[in-house]
Amino acid sequence: MTGTTDQTRKIAPRRRIAVPLWAVFFVAFYLYVALEIEPHLLYHGAGLIDSFPVFYWGWDFFAGFLSYPGGILEYASALLSQLFYYSWAGAAVITAQAWLICLCTDYAIGAVGLPRWRGLRFLGPLLLLALYSQYTFHLPVTMGVLAALVALCLYLKLAPKGPIGAGVWFLAFSVGLYALAGGPYLLFALLCGLVEILFRGRPRLGAIQLALGAAVPFVLGVIAFGRRTHDAYFQLLPLSWRISTLTSSELMREAVWVLILFLPVALLVLGIAQMLLRSVGSRRSRKKAKPSPAPDSIRRIAEKLLGDPACSRFGPNLQTATLIAATAAVLLLYRNPKVKTLFETDYFSYHGQWSKVIEIGRENPYHYLVCHAVNRALYHEGRLGDEMFAFPQRSEALLLTRQEALWQKSDTCVDMGLVNQAENALMICLETYGQRPLLLHRLARVNKIKGNIGTARVFLGALAKAPFWGRTARDELARLDADPKLSQDAAIQHWRSIMLRQDFVRDADALMLLLTENPANRMAYEYGMAGLLLSKRLDPFAQNVDTLRPVAAPKDPRHHVEAVLLNRTLKRQPIDVPGQTIPRETKIRLHEFFQALQQHGKDKAEATEALRGPFGDTYYYYYFLGG
Predict the structure, then answer these.
(1) CB contact set of 235 (below 8 Å; sequence gap of 6+)
(2) Where is the chain membrane-spanning (predicted)?
(3) Is residue 394 located within the same domain as residue 296?
(4) Is residue 129 situated within a structural domain?
(5) Residue 112: which of 192, 58, 168 has the closest Cα?
(6) Which of 498, 526, 559 corresponds to the end of one domain?
(7) Residue 147 region by backbone torsions, left for phi larger than 0, else alpha for psi between -120 and 50, else beta
C-alpha cells in the first residue's frame, strides 16, 4: 500500500502557481515608470512643466485650500506630487493611482452585470502610461477621476436597493464628493445616472440624479462657497481656466478626456446594446423563433479578448497576449525619448554631472537647449575650445537668446557673473512656474552673492517648509548665522569676484563688460571667443584671442588655432608669426579640407554630407558648411 502511494505521488503532476494577470501587469508598470520614465525628471521640471503644484508644510498653506470645493483633493494632489522627488516614490504614486482606477473600473463593470467586459479595467492604467510616457503632468485631474470612481463604487456597494434610500445616499455622496473634489463630481453624477437608467431599470431615479448633478455645483459652489459659475462646475477638470491656461496642460489633453469619459461611454454603449438585445430576445421568445447565434458569438469574442477576471492568469493565453499587445502599442505610440533627453540634460546640468550632459549631446541631434547645456558642460570640463564643434552648433544657443529658456539661462548667467540677469530670469520663472523649491534655492543663492542676506533668509525660510528641502534650507541658514558675510564660502566669493556691477546690459555687450571689470573671468573669455567663432567674425576673434586671454584659460585650444589659421589663409597673411607658430597637423588638415571641398563644387548639400565624417569636428567645417 505504501509503495502504491509513493508511485501515486510521483505520477501526480505538480500544481503550477497561477499568477494573476493584473499582478504581473502592475509590477511591470511600476518598474517601467521608475526605471524608464523616472518621475524625478518631472519634479525637476526643466522649465518644461508649468502645471507641477507647489506644496508647503503648515496650517497657512493648508487653510487656503479649504475655501473652495475641490481644495482638499488639490491639496492631496500637491502633496503626492512632491513624492516625485524620488523616482521610486513617484512611481509608487502613479502605480497606486493606476491600480485603484483599474480596481474601481473592474468593480463598477461587474456590479452592473457586465463581467465579460471587465478587461476594460486596464484602459485607465494604459492611458496613464501614455500620459507619463510623454512627460506630461495631469495628476490633479487624474486624482479627480479616481475620486469620482471611488465614490461610484461606494454608492454601488452601500446604497440601499430602494429608490428613496438610494436617492438619499446619492445626495449624501454628492455633498461630500463635491466639497472634496469639485468638478469631478459631475463624472460621478453622470455615472450614477447611467447605472440607474440603463442597468437598474430606474429611469426616474437616474434622471433625478442627473438633474442633481447639474444643480449641486450651483447650489454649493456658487451660492454656498461664492465661487464663479465656471469655477464651481469645472474645478479640477481640463475645462478649468486654472488648468487650460497652463502651457504644459495642453499636451495630451485628448488622452485626459478619454480617461475621464471612457467609463461613461462604455456604460452607455453596453447598456443600450444590452437593452436592444433583451428587446430582440423578448420578441423572438414570443414568436418562438430560433435564437440568433450573434449575441452568443459577441459574448464569446469579448470573453476571449477581455477575459473573465476570475480566470485571468498570466501565461500563454489570449487575455495575456491582448494586454501585452495593447501595452506595446501604447509605448510604441507615446514613448518619447526626445523629450526625456531635454529633462535629463537640465537635470544633469543642475547637479553638475557634466560628462553625462556631453554624452547626451554626442548621442542626439541638435536641439537649442541641449546645445547650450553641452557648451556649458564642455566649459566646466575645460574642453570648450577643443571640442565644441564636434557637436551641432548654432550661435543662438550659446547664451540662450530666446525668452522661453529663462529657466536654464539663470544658471549660466550666475556662472558667468551676470547675477542681475540671473535674478531677473528667476523672478520671471517664479511668476510662470510658481514658488518651486528649485527656484527658491536659486534665488537664495543669487541674493547671497549680491549681499542681500535678509532676502536670502526669506527665500530659505520658505524653502524650509518644502518637503525634502528642509535640511538644505536649515543648513544654509545656520551658515548665514555663523558667517553673515559668507567670507568662508569659496563659491560665493568666486561669484562675487566676477559679478558684473552694472544693472542691465545687452547680451552683445555683457561678455566684454565682464572682461573689462575682471580680466580674470575665464568663462566670459571662453564664451566671448566661442560667440565670435559661432558668428564667423574672424577679424575681432584674431584681434582678441590672445590679448584678452586670462592666465587661467587654456592656451591655444584646437578650435582657436584652427580659426587663426583660417583667418590668415583667407586674408593671405603669413601663416606663422613670431610667438605663434601653427602646428603642422593643423595646416595639413586645412589643406585636406579645401581639397575635399573643391571636389563638390557649388553643391553645398552634397559637401555637407560627404565632409561630415572626416571634418565634422573642425571649425573649418562649421565655417563653410555649418551654422
Answers:
(1) 68, 69, 70, 182, 183, 221, 227, 242
(2) 17-35, 55-76, 88-115, 135-156, 168-199, 205-225, 255-277
(3) no
(4) yes
(5) 192
(6) 498
(7) alpha
Instruction: Put residue 440 in one of left, alpha, beta given phi > 0 → left and psi -120 to 50 → alpha.
Output: alpha
Residue located via cell numbers 449624501: 172
Task: Say yes or no: 41 and 117 in one domain.
Answer: yes
Max CA pair span of the chain = 112
Phi (first) and psi of residue 313, to 5 degrees = -125, 150
Residue-level pLDDT at 492: 96
Contact 48, 135 (CB under 8 A): yes
Q: Are residues 207 and 76 in the same domain?
A: yes
Q: Which of 420, 142, 90 is nearest to 262 (CA)?
A: 142
Interatomic CA distance for residues 457 and 460, integer angstroms = 5
Question: What is d(CA 615, CA 594) in angstroms, rounded to the nearest whole number?
Answer: 11
Work out the mean pLDDT of the chain and round it to a whole number: 90
Rg (C-alpha) for the chain, rounded Å, is: 32
Domain that holds residue 241: 21-332
CA dist 197 and 195 (Å) reads 6
d(CA 397, CA 534): 10
Q: What is the pLDDT of residues 291-301, one digit of tens each?
A: 555 555 555 55
Q: What is the mean pLDDT of residues 581-598?
A: 93
Length, in residues, of the chain: 627
- Same domain, yes or no, for 243 and 387? no
DSSP class of residue 553? S
Write down the pTM of the prediction.
Answer: 0.90
Task: Find cell 571640442 and name the residue.
Answer: 387
Distance of CA 213 to the CA centre of its chain: 34
Q: What would the mean pLDDT of 595-623 be, rounded to a whole number?
A: 92
CA distance 147 to 157: 15
pLDDT tens, position by position, 541-557: 999 998 999 988 888 89
pLDDT at 602: 83
Q: What is the pLDDT of residues 254-292, one digit of tens each?
A: 999 999 999 999 999 999 988 887 777 666 665 554 555
Question: Which of 464, 498, 532 is the endpoint of a domain?
Answer: 498
Residues 46 and 155 in one domain: yes
Taking a C-beta distance cutoff of 8 angstroms, is the pair 548, 525 a contact? yes
> Are both 314 and 384 inside the same structural domain?
no
Alpha carbons 121 and 112: distance in angstroms, whole number? 14
Q: How far apart are the C-alpha atoms of 375 and 383, rounded to whole Å?
A: 9
The answer to whether 41 touches 347, Cβ cutoff 8 Å, is yes
Three-state secondary structure call for residue 159: coil
CA distance 65 to 144: 15
- In a domain, residue 562? The reply is no
